[in-house]
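Quick start: what a row looks like.
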Amino acid sequence: MKTYNELQLAKELMRFQSVTPVDAGVMKFLSKKLSGLGFKCKILEFKSKNTKSVKNLYAKLGKSRPNFCYAGHTDVVPPGNLSDWTVNPFKPEIKGKYLIGRGANDMKASIACFIAAVSRFKKKFDGSISLLITGDEEGMAVNGTKKVVEYLKKKKEKIDFCLVGEPTCVKNLGDMIKNGRRGSITGHLKISGVQGHVAYPNRANNPSPIMTKILNQITNMKLDRGSKNFQASNLEIVRINIDNNADNVIPSNVTATFNIRFSDKHSSGSLKKKLNNVFKKICKKSKCSYKISYYVQGESFLTKSNKTTKMIQNTIQKITKIKTKISTTGGTSDARFIRKISPCIEFGLVGARKKGGMHKVDESVSLYDLKKLTIIYQKVLENYFK
């Protein structure tokens, strides 16, 4: 079996300009690399209404169970202003002890580490190793892992445990793994009144102060104080808009967008009910009308500690010599889809760095961490298939 070098493979992956949800040929490249290791690869392309098609990859080595799966994504966020970068974001370079380029820690380098680890895991084993790689994680996540999971369920493909390679570490490699995430719901609210002249407010009904009152009330709602495994829920206003170009006109409509990251104290359904009661009460009193639409990115979830999660935590601690904290902090990830068919945890590179962190200019990964993560992934495989 071939052996791949994680640094070289990371560079090759980072050269693909796979800004979400563009594939740019990266799935075909990965399929070729994995085929060289004996994997059977299937590129799955999905499309929905008003969205671009997305290519995903499911690759599997072996046929029997247990099936240990690694999940990741090849799509990256836009690089932003290119003049702010010290390198071309899609022509990765080594500077000092770091590899710089878009996708360095979120998360092409992690994918490279796992493939390199598999290539060095040459012993015979009872079971199978699979990779679920999507090109739609950074965007709407409509045609990515969510659709692949549906496909796997229809094919009755079983995954016994999944390791998601997101950049979970905060300061040092090994300091954090994620065993769950808070839920996420976005609301698009529109308040409608009656347009009129500012000099004659009695002939109009201004929706602006009504929106202000609503936003003030929902942002001051004490949703919860968190729970044993989750930090407190929080609601943030992310957009307010009044489509009005005149200074002497009372507008007819005001729109706002908010997002809630919620603990296991709530569901998206219970939050909708709570919010709708506020909108209804205030708008009825003001004689304004409202329209609300919600988009649920995911419900909160938790993977309970089991033999495999403990083994992974112990393996990380033994190799890094760092106490590995288990956490549910951070944003959403594709684990929210995978957890419906398999227990899963997340562990990858350091993503929260102030300089060169995920989604930042000069995104970078430590060369030391690249080697160390490959060793960890390889040891996890060895321990899992003992």
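That is the whole record. The first strand starts at residue 40 and ends at 46. DSSP finds nine helices and 19 strands in the chain.
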